[in-house]
Design a protein that fits this description.
Distance between the termini: 55 Å
Number of strands: 0
Shape: globular
Helix content: over 70%
Oligomer: single chain
Length: about 400
């Protein structure tokens, strides 16, 4: 078998190939952020060997410790590793665009036909199948990231338990794990004699222009500021960002009622790509197509910048023993948080015997057949089952 490439060696793939992969992932990648992170590892690290294990772990660490959506930030970093700022931007656009077009289309249907009465039935089946999909992804990540070291297992279990109890990822625990492993595995011997770290490499600002009707300028400004704040200050995956969005969209601005917001979350879960693309659906309901564009742009600009700005440090200092220990601790803690998120999502989606059966069957099928069983097929079957079973269970 050909050895996996180093993150710092010339790429064995073209930027076009990477863009095509993320375009496909954004079109067919079901299961939310946890599953998407697993797909990237399986496809880019294990199968194609385009990205090294160390490069992937660096990206996962950045995605966990910086605010913004997990899967999108990891995708940005995968593009950055060998193709820099513009590679990151193009990969991110390819990843987000398919699901954005889907949610805008669903938003048009929602506003035109008065709601999505079939959505609960579809999500009933798909949500249960997704638990099986992300459970397999979390299991594979755990095997890959956590060794037999008791310290790493302790960090993993603590973060998994904290995620289950608080129902959100605790960034302070993730960062604390990094410092703990650093102090134990590679303690700094010369605190005040380290070489001075140079400033951040200059990152050119990339302007994003959106043609919007002047009559809605004030509302679009509110949408932009709110979703930019969500992308800048909310840590973790879609699981963590949903309460923040609910507080602003429903409680503070009252753009949507509670049922409309739940429909928006359901749309994000049954469409592929990053879960936070629900911002496009919400923006469409609030201010049409301009609102969808502004909401999505405002969400992804901060996480793009918060990925590529610190990226040079990971590239330059990643082999330093202290940095490596810190990254290892944070990565294991993040993997524990992902495992805990599986439990939290399962509590929401597994609510009766049929959904439990769908989840277990999905888990067993993926365990047995693995990559031979495509996730879109699983999602389609689960959606059909949901449409048949839900009206019987909840007439």
């Amino acid at each position: 078998m050909t050895p996996a490439p180093s993150a710092y060696e010339p790429p064995t793939y073209s930027l076009k190939q990477l863009i095509q992969y993320f375009l496909k992932l954004g079109t067919l990648g079901f299961g939310g952020p946890i599953a998407l992170v697993g797909y990237m590892h399986r496809d880019l690290v294990e199968d194609r060997q385009w990205i090294s294990e160390s490069g992937y772990q660096e990206g996962l660490t950045l995605a966990q410790v910086a605010p913004g959506p997990l899967a999108a930030q990891l995708g940005f970093y995968m593009g950055y590793i060998h193709y820099g700022i513009w590679g990151s931007a193009l990969v991110g656009l390819a990843f987000v665009l398919p699901s954005f077009l889907m949610v805008v289309t669903l938003g048009w249907a929602y506003t035109r036909y008065g709601g999505l009465s079939w959505m609960q039935a579809v999500f009933y089946g798909v949500g249960a199948a997704v638990i099986g999909i992300i459970a397999i992804s979390a299991y594979k990540l755990t095997r890959k990231m956590v060794s037999t070291d008791w310290l790493l297992w302790g960090i993993y279990l603590i973060n998994a338990a904290a995620t289950v109890v608080t129902q959100s990822e605790r960034v302070e625990l993730i960062l604390g794990a990094g410092f703990l492993v650093w102090l134990i595995k590679s303690p700094p011997r010369q605190w005040f004699k380290a070489k001075q770290v140079r400033g951040l490499a200059a990152v050119p600002f990339i302007p994003f222009l959106a043609a919007v009707p002047p009559a809605t300028t004030a509302l679009l400004g509110q949408i932009f500021l709110f979703f930019a704040a969500a992308g800048s200050f909310v840590f973790g995956s879609g699981l963590a960002i949903v309460p923040f969005l609910y507080g602003g969209v429903v409680k503070d601005f009252q753009w949507l009622d509670a049922q409309q917001f739940l429909d928006a979350v359901a749309v994000a879960m049954i469409t592929p790509g990053p879960v936070v693309i629900t911002t496009g659906f919400i923006g469409f309901l609030v201010a049409g197509l301009p609102g969808a564009c502004v909401a999505a742009i405002a969400m992804f600009i901060p996480c793009y910048l918060l990925t590529i700005i610190p990226a040079p440090y990971f590239r330059k200092h990643g082999k330093n023993p202290g940095i490596s220990a810190f990254v290892n601790g944070v990565t294991v803690a993040a993997t524990g948080a992902i495992a805990g998120a599986v439990v939290v999502l399962g509590q929401q989606s597994i609510r009766d015997i049929p959904t439990l059966s769908i989840g277990l069957i999905t888990l067993a099928a993926l365990w047995k057949f693995g990559k031979k069983l495509p996730e879109p097929l699983i999602v389609a079957i689960a959606a059909a089952v949901g449409l048949l079973v839900y009206p019987v269970m909840y007439p």
